[in-house]
């Protein structure tokens, strides 16, 4: 492949010295990744030649390598520019962080590689998939062996980075900042470099503070920090005074925390039902000093390690796996659901992509939407009809769904079809669904008799359900009254609304011809128009479900909340955003969950508060995409109304005490401006029934995103804890304009652990910021 670029030429002695240097880097920096001296890490540090693929004609060789910080990847790129009427080429380097990578996919799995490369190079291709909306990096290696080496090495570094403890991630981040501050690369830090480093880690320090810190660590009086002095500098910088206070209060055994002291802390402060065995387990798991471990003691370092891991997290570790009863009928669960899943951006001109389905499914979305239209060459396509959004083949979407549906969760996936196709292309849709999904597609009811209720998520594990129009009742399968011809049905409610939005006068609801083959695979999710709750109760079977536009749904939730909840006790309801949300914004899903709606469809591609709430709602139960609704939303005798609370099983009054203590290593928002330091504040929000909704905030701390301290106490009165979500929002205070978003974390109140806890910090798109955390004290108590 002549388009490959060579790595820099060196003499034999220079090459040996360079390789020796890389071995040293792999040993020292790899140690923090758990890859000390690893050969795969050395391979990435050395780098190599890959072809970057952008189109059929744009395939250029580039030199790729892992930087010595072991967390930044770089590759050369060429940029054309004009100077004095002459076109010149500038060689630049493009960088991205290992933490920005979502996955590495081997083979021609991306849309780009399928479109721009031939099947004969399948064993040379791979893609780097990024989090968020950043475009995939499609690449080709020189040989299959080279491909395997790149993929396995990348996956190893990504997995090790992901599996680092929070303390190790913090350490890794700080030392990488130290390396960046060491401008001349001599492994020594001058006072000027220390000041630069402090700005990098989000601390605005005056000259006297920086000089004082430098002087304390410069024990050799050399005017530079090196070796152990840099380590001492790190320990002084990361010293947690607030953790010292807690530790010293409970460390009553010769200055250390014995197993009995730790148990005392777990029982009295963390309010856990702990035993002596639990204390021993934590010491064994987190203590870093072997002597202390042998003496059944926990040092301050071990205690900090415990606080920063799953056992010390705000999120109950018991809820990280599936813990709820998954044998209830399907409609007894909230189901993580996406609207217009194929869109990567807005609703009018953005791209449609199979990648959007993959990203949603990997986030445990269990209901995806497919807007189907006649395409060229007889092949149906998916796009937002009557707009400039791009088109993607229906069969490519089905293949992607099949490949990725059950990677994060084994529980059933609902394919919500909005069908605009001719009968001929509908036949092809049905055949693609049957062919590609195979036995995983539910083509008839479970069991040998006509069901009277939904099967459970457990019974439907690994299965696909089709939601769409059906020509007849489901019981015709068992009575030999099944139709043998195509027929006519009314179009989907959402399709009719889209048409209404694009026309001045309200159009009549159209009838569409429906293919029998497509009709026959709609089993448990038959789309019907909603008239009234009374009409649904008297005329509709359990498997007949309606879709509600947000304005209709919110009106019903406001005026007929209890009736809506009872409707959802034996039927499914799907809610979708208003057609006017052309920017792909979202509505608040909480009021819909409050009345028991299951399929509350949101635009997954939009990083918004509403998606943060959705992520929080589905965080527990193994992040499987199904959350069992509270018993009072499933019991026919319930008269629960979220708008006007009365006595009942739902009323469990609590007082939620929150103390926001401190934050650690918050990200810089403006990385271009070295002197830009955040002024952080914390908002604590409760989202639930109307009576529980509340928001309180701390003051802002000026010029400190590294270790701001608040010690601010809040109290919230909670009436219906089973429906409450807690959201922590970190913002950068701005006196002149709206505060800037720093990070957030959301979870159900029922998944919160009491006591001293660290709160992870997620970015806008819901990915964890590995170096950052919030430290709080929480207590959920029964109201007097």
UniProtKB/TrEMBL annotation:
SUPFAM superfamilies: C2 domain (Calcium/lipid-binding domain, CaLB), EF-hand, PH domain-like, PLC-like phosphodiesterases. CDD domains: C2_PLC_like (cd00275), PH_PLC_delta (cd13363), PI-PLCc_delta (cd08593). Substrate binds at residues 52-79, 467, 469, 547, 574. Residues 518-634 form the PI-PLC Y-box domain. It comes from the Eukaryota. Residues 634-763 form the C2 domain. Ca(2+) 3 binds at residues 340, 369, 371, 418. Its EC number is 3.1.4.11. It is an enzyme of class 3 (hydrolase). It is a peripheral membrane protein. This is Phosphoinositide phospholipase C. It comes from Oreochromis niloticus (Nile tilapia). The lineage of its organism: Eukaryota, Metazoa, Chordata, Craniata, Vertebrata.
């Amino acid at each position: 492949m002549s388009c490959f670029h060579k790595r820099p030429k060196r003499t034999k002695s220079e090459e040996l010295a360079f390789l020796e240097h890389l071995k040293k880097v792999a040993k020292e920096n790899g140690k923090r990744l758990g890859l000390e001296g690893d050969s795969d890490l050395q391979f990435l540090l050395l780098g190599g030649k890959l072809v970057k693929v952008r189109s059929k004609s744009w395939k250029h060789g580039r030199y790729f390598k892992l930087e010595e910080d072991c967390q930044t990847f770089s590759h050369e790129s060429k940029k054309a520019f004009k100077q004095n009427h002459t076109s010149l080429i500038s060689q630049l380097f493009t960088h991205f962080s290992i933490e920005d990578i979502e996955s590495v996919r081997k083979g021609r799995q991306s849309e780009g590689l399928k479109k721009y490369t031939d099947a004969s190079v399948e064993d040379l291709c791979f893609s780097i998939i990024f989090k968020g909306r950043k475009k995939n990096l499609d690449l080709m290696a020189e040989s299959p062996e080279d491909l395997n080496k790149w993929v396995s090495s990348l996956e190893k570094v990504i997995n090790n980075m992901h599996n680092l403890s929070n303390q190790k991630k913090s350490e890794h981040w700080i030392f990488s900042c130290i390396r960046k501050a060491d401008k001349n690369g001599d492994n020594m830090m001058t006072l000027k470099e220390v000041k630069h480093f402090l700005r990098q880690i989000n601390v605005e320090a005056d000259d006297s503070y920086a000089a004082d810190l430098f002087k304390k660590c410069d024990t050799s009086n050399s005017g530079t920090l090196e070796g152990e002095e840099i380590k001492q500098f790190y320990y002084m910088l990361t010293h947690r005074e607030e953790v010292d206070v807690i530790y010293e209060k409970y460390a009553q055994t010769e200055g250390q925390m014995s197993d009995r002291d730790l148990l005392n802390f777990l029982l009295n402060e963390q309010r856990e039902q702990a035993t002596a065995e639990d204390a021993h387990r934590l010491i064994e798991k987190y203590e870093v000093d072997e002597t202390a471990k042998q003496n059944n003691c926990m040092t301050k370092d071990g205690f900090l390690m415990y606080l920063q891991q799953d056992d010390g997290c705000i999120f109950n570790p018991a809820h990280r796996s599936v813990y709820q009863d998954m044998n209830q009928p399907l409609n007894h669960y909230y189901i993580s659901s996406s609207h217009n899943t194929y869109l990567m951006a807005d609703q009018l001109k953005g791209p449609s992509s199979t990648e959007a389905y993959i990203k949603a499914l990997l986030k445990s979305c269990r209901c995806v939407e497919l807007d189907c239209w006649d395409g060229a060459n007889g092949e149906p396509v998916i796009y937002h009809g009557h707009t400039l959004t791009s088109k993607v083949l229906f069969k490519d979407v089905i293949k992607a769904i099949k490949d990725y549906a059950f990677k994060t969760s084994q529980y059933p996936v609902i394919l919500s079809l909005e069908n605009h196709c001719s009968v001929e292309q509908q036949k092809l849709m049905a055949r693609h669904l049957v062919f590609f999904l195979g036995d995983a597609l539910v083509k008839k009811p479970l069991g040998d008799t006509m069901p009277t209720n939904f099967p459970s998520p457990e019974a439907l594990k690994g299965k696909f359900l089709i939601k769409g129009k059906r020509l007849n009742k489901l019981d015709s399968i068992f009575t030999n009254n099944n139709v043998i011809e195509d027929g006519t049905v009314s179009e989907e409610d959402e399709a009719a609304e889209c048409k209404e939005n694009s026309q001045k006068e309200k159009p009549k609801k159209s009838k569409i011809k429906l293919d029998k083959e497509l009709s026959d695979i709609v089993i448990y999710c038959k789309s019907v128009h909603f008239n009234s709750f009374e009409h649904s109760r008297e005329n509709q079977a359990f498997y007949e479900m309606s879709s509600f536009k947000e304005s209709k749904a919110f009106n019903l939730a406001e005026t007929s909340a209890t009736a809506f909840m009872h409707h959802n006790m034996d039927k499914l309801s799907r809610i979708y955003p208003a057609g006017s949300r052309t920017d792909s914004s979202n509505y608040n899903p909480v009021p819909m969950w409050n009345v028991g709606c299951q399929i509350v469809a949101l635009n997954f591609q939009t990083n918004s508060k509403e998606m943060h709430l959705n992520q929080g709602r589905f965080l527990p139960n193994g992040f499987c995409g199904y959350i069992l609704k509270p018993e009072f939303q499933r019991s026919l005798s319930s008269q629960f109304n979220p708008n006007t609370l009365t006595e009942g099983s739902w009323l469990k009054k609590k007082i939620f005490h929150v103390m926001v203590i401190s934050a650690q290593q918050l990200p810089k928002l403006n990385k271009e401006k070295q002197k830009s330091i955040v002024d952080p504040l914390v908002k604590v929000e409760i989202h639930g029934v109307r009576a529980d909704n509340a928001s309180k905030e701390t003051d802002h701390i000026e010029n400190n995103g590294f270790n701001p301290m608040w010690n601010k106490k809040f109290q919230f009165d909670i009436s219906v804890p089973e429906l409450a979500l807690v959201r922590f929002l970190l913002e950068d205070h701005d006196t002149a304009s709206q505060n800037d978003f720093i990070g957030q974390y959301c979870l159900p109140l029922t998944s919160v652990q009491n006591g001293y806890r660290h709160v992870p910090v997620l970015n806008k798109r819901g990915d964890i910021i590995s170096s950052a955390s919030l430290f709080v004290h929480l207590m959920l108590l029964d109201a007097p």
